Amino acid sequence: MPATDAAQRKLLKNTISRCPVCHAPAPAGVWKERTDNGNDRIVLSRTCTEHGKSTAVISSDARFYWLSQGSDDNRCGAGCACSADPSGLTGTLGKNAFAEKDATIEQLSTCLALIEIVDSCNLACPTCFADSPVGTHSKLSYHRLPELKKRITAVLERKQHIEILQLSGGEPTLHPDFFELLDWIHEQVGIDYTLINTNGVRLAKDDEFLRQLGERVSRGHLQLYLQFDGPQEAGQRELRGADLRSVKQVAMERCQIIGLPVTLAMTVNEHNLSTLWDTIEWGIGHDNCRGVSFQPMFLSGRSPTTEPQHHLNTADIILGSVEQSAGRLKFDDFTPLPCGDPNCATIGYLLKTPEGIRSISDFIDFAEVQGFLKDKVHYRIEDLAQCGCDNTALGDILKQFEFRERDTFRLFIKPFMDAWTWDEDRIDRCCTHVIRPDGKLDSFCRYYSGFPDCASTEPIATSTLPSAK
Ligand code: SF4
Ligand code: SF4
Ligand SMILES: [Zn+2]
Q: What is the pTM of this model?
């Protein structure tokens, strides 16, 4: 990182980060600084008592960093894994919401709850944040159905409602009781929507699996979160260890046949950063594709732990996709989601009109609907038209073109954190939770961080299949 004049730096806030060497909590500052080319960017500097100072750029463009602590309603409670205060910093640095937590009522807002149902995977991606071991058939390690039901039921009892339940792994489609679990989830009135977080291999190759999944599609409230790293060769091997484009293509086509909506989940690193718009166009070219979720690569699990030259962030995705779109996408098409820390999720829409792709900011001012978007990661385009913000332009346009869900295309940017980018303020307001093996909820970022003080203390109850399927 080039040095900057001290006079060109401004401290925005203090927080707690992590030492990238030993992962110990470390006091940190978030700074806005002027670069040599005259632009402002945001850096996070922390100092470890043992390993000294380290700094990372957390926003390449200060225009896309939001200094906010999120909503006060969204704070931790008794069912949250962090209630044990693993950082050990409460009261020491005065930067922790734990001290205010209600000991009996879980107040934490959960927009998305993820549960790992299979630990093994049929791929061996070199960047796997879950560090999933390869394993299928007799080597498959998975979580037993009664155990999964118990954990999900307990969360429902505490919170009454899960907006989105994401089945994850490992590779969740390998679970031997996958459809029994899916049927049970669909019977739970407190669960709005199920996402299947998959690499698509089983969908592309297993006819019987596809047939059975197809039988469940008409119930609705079901979507595939398909790992997809772009339609180009660049990045495929670095991210997945193999070029899987033909597998993804077949998986997508087969989902189209059974009418299953798909969101593409793109891990973005320096190899595929130049293909953000290509991915959007590839998705728009498939009727059942509802959007792309961009995840700047973070260094957890199997990802390399050496210091990267640059930590990709939300600003890189916005700048890259707008530039690559040649005017079809605009900065105003994106807005931070206000339910947790606004730096945790950025969202936007494109509209498929008879005249081609239009950006949603042509019709609506996102700033006006911030209150409405609270706790609504999965809001629909129809919802926006009824948000009560008196924006008739969007309602008119929807009516004019008779927009349905399939006429809209959602862009989502989800910058998970690693030790380099860690800001404890974001964890304190986290709304993306993993249902841990011990039943507690934990922040996705912390669960996959690998920090020794954040590990689940309960043994993981898994099974292996007695014989090959
Ligand atoms: S990233 Fe996903 S597909 Fe790749 S090994 Fe990990 S769990 Fe499997
Ligand atoms: S999982 Fe991480 S990025 Fe997502 S809301 Fe929680 S703290 Fe923010
Ligand atoms: Zn250290």
A: 0.86
